[in-house]
Amino acid sequence: MTADGRTTLVLSPWCALCATPGDFGPHNPAVPRSGLCPACIAAGKPTREGLEHAVVIVAGQTLAGAEALDLAAATPEELAYHLGAVKRSLRSLLQLLAPVKGEGGR
To answer: Residue 45 — left, alpha, or beta (φ > 0 → left; ψ -120 to 50 → alpha)?
Structure first.
């Protein structure tokens, strides 16, 4: 987005969702299927932004459940679950930040 609130188009040499090489037009976040390859469109795949939003929602719910645990009175099993939930949530969020294969000429 620009400073005045307008959405900018991003040109990329690959599909905005699956990173298949090719020119599929500019990716405009305001248009759900822009920048996607024909295979992604035909498969009815959700947009990358939709997937990212879903991951953030699920991770937030998992973390909220883990935070509700009283650590001072927790059993070893509850502590193990708590740490596992935090680890899974953080891993899923960090995967959103990982570079997409084929991005940046790598």
So the answer is: beta
Ranges of the chain whose pLDDT falls below 70: 1-12, 45, 99-106
**Cβ atoms within 10 A of the Cβ of 2, count?**
7
Q: Let me know how long the chain is.
A: 106
3-class secondary-structure state, position 67: helix
Tell me how crowded residue 88 is: count the other CB atoms within 10 A of its CB. Answer: 15
pTM of the model: 0.44
3-state secondary structure of 59: helix
DSSP 10: B
Q: Which two tokens stand for residue 29?
A: 């976040």
